[in-house]
Amino acid sequence: MRHLIYCFLLIIGPGIASAQKIFEGQVVDKETEATVPGVTVKLLKEGKGTQTNNRGYYKLISADTIANDSLHFTSIGYKTLRVPVTAYQQGMFIELEASTTELKGVTITKKAPRKPVLNKFSLANIKEYRFKSAYGKYANRTWPFRARIMVAMKMKAKHKNVRISSINIGRREFDENYYPDGQLALPVPHTRFLVHIMSRDELTGLPDQKIYTKDIRLSDNSQMVIIDVSQDNWTVAGDTFFVAVEWLRIPINQVLQLDADLTVSKTTRSGEQKLGEAPTYHILYQPAITIMDTKVKYEGYKMNEPGIWQYITSPLAISATIMD
Amino acid sequence: MKYLYFIILLFNIPGLKAQTVTNNFRIVDADTKRPIPYASVSLPRASLAMNTEADGLLSIPGDLSKMNDVLVITAQNYTPSVSPLNKLSGMDTIQLKKYPYRPVNIPVSSTGKDSVLNKFTWQDVTYFAGVHSQHARFEYLQIAQQFDSPAPGAKLSQIFFRRFATWGTYTERTRFRLRFYDIDPVYGTPGKDLCHEIIEETNKDDPRLTVNLQKYNIIIPGKKFFVAIEWLRTFENAGYAPNRAERNLVYKPTIGILPYKTDKLNIWVLNYAHQWKPFTYFSPYYTDLALSATVKW
C-alpha cells in the first residue's frame, strides 16, 4: 500500500502545536477588491495585534488562542469587521466595506475610478473553497500551477498603444494532493520571480520578445499580488501582448515536499531484503499561480524546455490593468 | 551480525565492475580492540559516506589494489584515519587511536544569568538543509551553527532546533548525534570537541527538538563555540532526493534554516574529506541554522 503525503513546511508546526495558531490573510476592499494597507488587526481577548502591509497582508501568531476570541479589523474609511476565531479559515480574504461619512449634507464615499482590466479575475475566482467531496472531507476548486521556466497569458485590448498600469497575479499554496485532514498548506513566504511583458509573434501567435521586465520579491503569503507598474511607462504598440511569469530556481524559492513510500530498507548478507518506509524529498519552486475557478476561456502558454512554448487550457489568474 | 556494504561503489570506482572479492574490515579501538560503533566512513573522490553499524563492520567489494580513492574514518574521541584504499588490500582490521580528552581548564562563569543565543520563532522556519537540490548535492557529515557566548567559561545547558517532520501516517523517525566544538584558533572553523561523551538522540516526529545538556557539563572556554548535528548515515535514517536512486540518498534529520539575514554566515558543514567549510547554499539570503543554544554564565 502506498502512502502519499504531501507536506509543506509552514503548516507543519501549526498542525501539531496545541494552542498556538497562525492567523494570516489579506484584507481587501469589498467593492473594488483592492488590497487595503494599514488595517489594524487585533485578537480582542488575547490582546495581540498587527497591521496589514502594503499588500493588505497580515499575520498574527497567537500563543494561546481563546476559543471565543475574535479578530477585529479596523481602518479609517471602512466599517469595523469582527470575525470569530472559530470562523477563521486559513488564507481567507477579509472584505471590508467602505464607510460613508456625511458632512453638512455632503456625502463622501470612498470610490476609485475603474480602469479596464484584461483577463479580469475576482477574489471569488481565486479563493480557496472548501467543500465536502466524495473523496475526502474537503476539496478545492482552485489549483496551483507552476511551469519549469515560464508561463505567458495572452491579453487583448480594445485599442492599440496600450499603457499598462498594473499586473495582478493570484497565488496559492502547493497542496496539489490535498491532504484530507483539513489543514491547508501555505507557500514559503519569501518568493522572487520575474514578470515580463512580451510581444506576440505574428506568424505563430506565440509569445515572442520580452519588452519589459520587473523583478518581484515578496515576503508574505499574500494570495492577491498587485504589481504597480504605473510609473514604469510600460506601453505596448499593438493591441495584443502577453504577460509572463518566469520562475527563478533559486534557494529562496524552494518548498520542500515529502513523498513517503515503502522501499527496501536493508539487504542482509544472505540477500534477504527488509522493507521499511523511506522518504523521498522533492523541491518545488515558488510561486504557485492559481488556476481559477471559472469557465471563461483564456489563451496561455507554458515553457518547460528552453524556447519551447506549449498551449495550456488552464485559466491562470494573471490580469493586466490598463489606462483607458 | 550486521554487515555494511558499499554497493554503490560499483557505479563509481573503476576496477569494481568485475568485482569478485568482498573486503571485510572491522573498525576497532587500537587499545581495547573493541569495535567502534557508528564510525563515519567516507570516500571523498567517489563522494560517498556511510556509518558503520554498532558492530563496526565495513565491507568494500572489489579489488582494492586498483582503487585510487582514500578511505576516511572518523569517530568521536578518536584520531581520524586516512588510508589510500589500495593500501588496505589484505587487511581485516582498521585501528583508530583514542586521543586524550582534556577537560577545559577555565574558571566557570557564575553571574547566574541565562542567555538564549540565536533565538528564533520556530513557526518562521520554512527552509531546510539536508537534501540534494537541482543545483547542489548535499554531501556533508555534520552541520554546525556558530555562536558567540556572552562570556568565557559559560556552561551550555540546552539546545533547541527545528527540523522537517510530518504528521500523518508517515513519521520522520530519526537518530542523530550532537557535537560541540571550540573554535579553531587558526582557521576559525569548528575545532576541538568540548564534550567527550557521545550524545545520541532519537526522535519520532517532533518538528521542534529540545535537548537538555545540563548533565554533560559542557563549558565554553572562549567566546565562540559551535553546536553540530552529526548525521548517522544508516539505513534507518536514509531517504532520497530528488528521486529514488542510490546516488540520491540523503539522511534524516533535515535541519531548519532561519529566514533571517545577519551580518555574517554562521553555518558550517563538514565534508567527506573531513574539512569544515562555510555553508553558502542559502547565501546571501540566510546565515543561521534554526538552532538556538542556552548558556548559563
UniProtKB/TrEMBL annotation, chain A:
Say which species the protein is native to.
Answer: Mucilaginibacter myungsuensis
Q: Which GO terms describe its molecular function?
A: carboxypeptidase activity
Q: Which domain of life is it from?
A: Bacteria
Q: Looking at the Swiss-Prot or TrEMBL record, what is one Pfam family this protein matches? A: CarbopepD_reg_2
Keyword terms, alphabetized: Carboxypeptidase, Hydrolase, Protease, Signal
Q: What is this protein called?
A: Carboxypeptidase-like regulatory domain-containing protein
Query: Where does the UniProt annotation place the signal sequence?
Result: 1-19
From TrEMBL, chain B:
Superkingdom of this protein's organism: Bacteria
What are the record keywords, sorted? Signal
Signal peptide coordinates: 1-18
Q: What is this protein called?
A: Uncharacterized protein
